[in-house]
Write a structure and sequence with these properties.
- With about 140 residues, this protein is an all-beta fold.
- It has a domain of about 90 residues: Immunoglobulin-like (Sandwich), CATH 2.60.40.
- About 0% of the residues lie in helices and about 35% in strands.
- The strands form two sheets. Strands 3-9-8-5-6 form a five-stranded mixed sheet, with no helix packed on it. The protein has a four-stranded mixed sheet with strand order 2-1-4-7, with no helix packed on it.
- It binds copper (II) ion.
- The site of copper (II) ion has 6 residues, from loops.
């Protein structure tokens, strides 16, 4: 009964236009930071790896060094079906249900902050498969 996808509706704040025109910022040349070559086709800021077992996340409360597009990679090292879900600012992202030995990967764009991650299957979260991901600047 769990796993309801809550699509967060982005609230668009429209600035009141009408009192004068907005000044265009002078075109700034912001150099793109040069980083290491991406190892996948998606440019991710960091990867959080987790092992899923009965009934825990290993690791439970990871720190992610960089905000941005974060890859979450979960491996089911348990005996029953598990999955990984992350509650981000735009809703919940998750892997499909994973069998023993299977690995699921997804990406979520996360600003700095703390985010819940958990196993969305049955009552696994209540049994202890829950933790917090801390994303630094
Ligand atoms: Cu589980």
């Amino acid at each position: 009964m769990r796993g309801g996808l809550v699509a967060a509706v982005a609230v668009v704040a429209l600035s009141a236009a009408g009192c004068g025109e907005q000044r265009d910022d002078v075109a700034r040349t912001v150099p793109e930071p040069v980083g290491p070559a991406p190892t996948t086709d998606v440019r991710t800021a960091a990867t959080a790896e987790v092992s899923l077992v009965e009934y825990a996340l290993d690791v439970r409360d990871p720190r992610v060094a960089k905000a941005g597009l974060i890859a979450f990679a979960a491996t089911n090292d348990g005996l029953v079906l598990h999955a990984l879900a992350v509650d981000g600012p735009a809703g919940t992202a998750r892997t499909p249900a994973l069998r023993l030995g299977e690995r699921g990967v997804f990406t979520v764009r996360l600003p700095p902050g703390r985010y819940k991650w958990y196993c969305p299957i049955a009552d696994h979260e209540q049994r202890g498969m829950v933790g917090r991901v801390r994303v630094a600047e």
